[in-house]
Amino acid sequence: MKICVLSDIHANYYALEKVLLSCADWGITNFWCLGDVVGRGPHVIKVLEWLKSVNDSSITWVMGNHDLHLMNLLDEEVVKRINGHANTVISLQREQIAQETDIQAYVNRVFIPSNLDPKHCEIDGIHHILVHGSLSDFAGIYHYLYPWYSHEILPSEFEKLNMIRKEEGLPVFCWVGHTHVPMMVSSEGGDKCAKAIPVDRKSVV
Fold first, then answer.
1. In the prediction, which pLDDT does 38 show?
2. CA 153, CA 145: separation in Å to the nearest integer?
3. Three-class secondary structure of residue 150 per DSSP
4. Which CA distances in Å does 31 have to 6, 74, 99, 173, 198?
5. 3-state DSSP call for residue 124?
6. Backbone angles phi, psi at 165, to 5 degrees
7. Is the pLDDT of residue 71 over 60?
8. What is the rounded CA–CA span in Å between residue 112 and residue 129?
9. What is d(CA 83, CA 80) in angstroms, rounded to the nearest whole number?
10. φ, ψ dihedrals at 193, nearest 5°
11. For residues 57 and 44, what is the distance between their CA atoms, to the nearest angstrom?
12. What is the per-residue pLDDT for 105?
């Protein structure tokens, strides 16, 4: 099975459209989305129309911090820490969505707290976990898994992954969005061996 993994679309339909064209060329019709489909960009309605058009059986997705912000699901103290531009964009996107009855109804139906929880998928004997921020901070409200923070955050992440691996009896692969920095992190022999491996941007669609 071929799957396109998307993250942090941020209402940028032009970029999404290019990815979808590549997916068509590769015959890819299944998607995993790691959150933050809204915020930042100018095409919130077109991106939400695409998300709404995808058959539920063809997409697995989780919400991110901007998605929570759109739905007023962030704590007031968290909102105070968000920069003014991001707040302004979300306010404008709320207004745009409110003018589109079908889109507003869709957002109200699927942008709900339960879609913040990690999604679990098993494919070809590998257990995959989808989150936006991390296993410790699903929405990415309090920290980012940047490569340069790996020594601080990764040990607790791998501890959780190793627990899941033992419970499931399968290799575990965790897909994380939020940072906008492509990288892979591997652990062989436990969390003390964790290391960040930069990913060539040319290999990322």
1. 97
2. 7
3. helix
4. 7, 26, 28, 16, 23
5. coil
6. -60, -40
7. yes
8. 19
9. 8
10. -100, 10
11. 23
12. 97
Average pLDDT over residues 175-194: 72
Determine how β-strand 126-131 pairs with β-strand 172-176: parallel
In angstroms, the CA 143 to CA 141 distance is 6
Mean pLDDT across 2-23:
96
36 backbone φψ class: left, alpha, beta (φ>0; ψ -120 to 50): left
Contact predicate 157/136, CB 8 Å: yes
Judge whether 56 and 84 are in contact, CB under 8 Å: no
Using an 8 Å Cβ cutoff, are 12 and 19 in contact?
Answer: no
Residues 35, 56, 105, 15, Cα dihedral to 10°: 40
Q: Percentage helix, strand, coil, to 5, in the chain?
A: 45, 15, 35
Q: What is the pLDDT of residue 181?
A: 83
Please name every residue paired with 3 in a beta bridge, in sequence order, or none if there are none.
30
Q: Which residues contact 75 (CB under 8 A, 6 or more apart)?
A: none
Cα 95 from Cα 43, distance rounded (Å): 13
- The residue among 49, 80, 79, 85 whose CA lies nearest residue 65 is 79
Averaged pLDDT score across all residues of the chain: 88
How many other CB atoms are there within 10 angstroms of residue 103's CB atom?
A: 18
Q: Specify the pLDDT at position 193.
A: 44
